[in-house]
Amino acid sequence: MKSGISRRTVLRGMFQGATVAVSLPYLDCFLNGNGTALAAGAPLPVRFGTWFWGLGVTPGRFHPTTAGPDWEVLPETEPMAAYKDKVTIFGGFDCLTDGRPNFPHATGGPSIRSGVAPSVSGTLPAQSFDSIIADHIGGDTRFRTLDVSGIGDRRNSLSGQGAGQMNPVETNAARFYQRLFGEGFVDPNAAAFTPDPTTMARKSVLSVVNEQRKALERRLGAADRARLDQYFTGVRQVEGQLALRLQKPEPLVACKVPEAPREKEVANVLEDVTENHEVMVRLLAMALACNQTKVFNVSFNNGASSLTRRGSATSHHQLTHDEAIDAELGYQPESTKFVADIMKAWGTFLGILEGTPEGDGTLLDRMLVVAHSETELAKDHNITNMPIMFAGLAGGRVRSGLSVIGQSDPVSRIGLTAMQVMGVPVDRFGAGSMETSRPVGEVVL
User: φ and ψ at 134, to 5 degrees?
Assistant: First the structure.
């Protein structure tokens, strides 16, 4: 039944000689009959994220052997079995280097993200697909993207604009909390709203700069105008974010400001990293529910995994090289145990998103997450048959719960698919042998 009430309806009155306005929360009359969208037709947001782990998987214990729905649960996919209808596992997709060297633990990750094999170790050769998606959908939230790492390495990033530039990551849960819910955070469910004077001042200053820019542009040639426009792209992004902070946000039922975590710096001890990862993912889930961002990147550990167990100085990385393969098991048991624990963390990540209700579903229903490592078998440093997954339903835009097996296809097909699912108007991705115009049709609705 139509009530004639808009979601932008406010209650107005006078208080001590001043006009006050109080917005209404999300009432049923604002939504469609299914609770999936605003009655006016605007859908609830669909988010995008990545989840990275280092040192791959154990062949025979991760990838399903047959393609299709209802994939077989193997030892290293057991932690995600409860969510298998919302997880798709890819096999048979390779990183193609076109003769460039395979830098151990530093080629696979950048190749998957950018569609280009790096020619220099430790660099991102082109803009990552998550950054391209953030350019498309991340402009109307407080943060264009949020990047965190469970392990205490602030350089642990695979996201950025390319040309070697990578996004910095947050490794401390207490700092992450302050960034999200400290100064500058506006509770969307608070009855009152008062713009931050500091934000107003910054917006005013940037507006003045913008007017000066326009005046300067009129005096420049075409080439210099293009350079100036590129230079001020970041300024325009900040202006847009500040403008959003000067408006009262829409009420969000799922948004509940969490308690601040305790201060704790984390290095590389697995038990600490696991706890740190879980705390930051819970904060991230609330940041998504409170519409602070639509794009995120989570790294559990680093590519050349420096994880150790409490009481041991032997790292995960060292084990992959030094530990003998058990003749009966057919794999390195201690190294494989690290993989199992990492996959448990992935299961925790999925459980937090699935356990956060939103509308008629969950956060996981309204997002697409691309999870991947930088190698298949760490001992061999191979960059074929890469372990990659999709998680989430992307608001009904993807088929999920599948095993998809390529034929040594370029991994760039998966990045192209993710961008197209998220509405990016792109028909090609990658370069050289990894340039492709073929999305993975099995998963696209």
Answer: -60, -35
**Which of 230, 247, 264 delimits the end of a domain?**
247
198 and 185, same structural domain? no
Measured CA to CA, the distance from residue 41 to residue 376 in angstroms comes to: 44
Complete edge-to-edge strand list for the sheet that includes strand 367-372: 68-69, 402-410, 87-94, 388-391, 367-372, 47-52, 295-299, 146-149
- pLDDT over 70 percentage in the chain: 79
Residue 246: how many CB atoms within 10 A of its CB?
A: 13
Statement to judge: residues 238 and 260 lie in one domain: no
**Does residue 439 share a domain with residue 322?**
yes
Q: In 3-state terms, what secondary structure has residue 78? A: helix
Q: Based on the fold, state whether residues 22 and 170 are members of the same structural domain.
A: no
179 and 205 co-located in one domain: no
Domain shared by 265 and 117, yes or no: yes
| DSSP secondary structure, 257-325, as one string | PPPPPPP----SBHHHHHHHHHHHHHHHHHHHHTTS-SEEEEESS-TT---B-TT---BHHHHHHHSPP
Structure tokens at 148: 């965190």
Domain carrying residue 50:
44-190+256-443
Instruction: Compute the distance between CA of residue 127 and CA of residue 427 in angstroms, rounded to an integer.
Output: 16
CA distance 85 to 96: 30
End-to-end CA distance of the chain: 31
Amino acid at 210: N
Residues 170 and 227 in one domain: no
**In this prediction, what percent of the chain has a pLDDT beyond 90?**
70
Segment 203-207 mean pLDDT:
52
Query: What does the pLDDT look like over 254-296, one tens digit per residue?
Result: 888 899 999 999 999 999 999 999 999 999 999 999 989 999 9
Whether 331 and 61 have beta carbons less than 8 Å apart is answered as yes
Looking at the structure, tell me whether residues 232 and 333 fall in a common domain: no
Confidence (pTM): 0.81
Domains contained in the chain, number: 3
Among residues 423, 390, 378, the alpha carbon closest in space to that of 90 is found at 390
Q: What's the CATH number where 64 sits?
A: 3.40.720
Q: Compute CA distances 163 → 77, 123, 127, 136, 160, whole Å.
A: 35, 8, 8, 20, 9
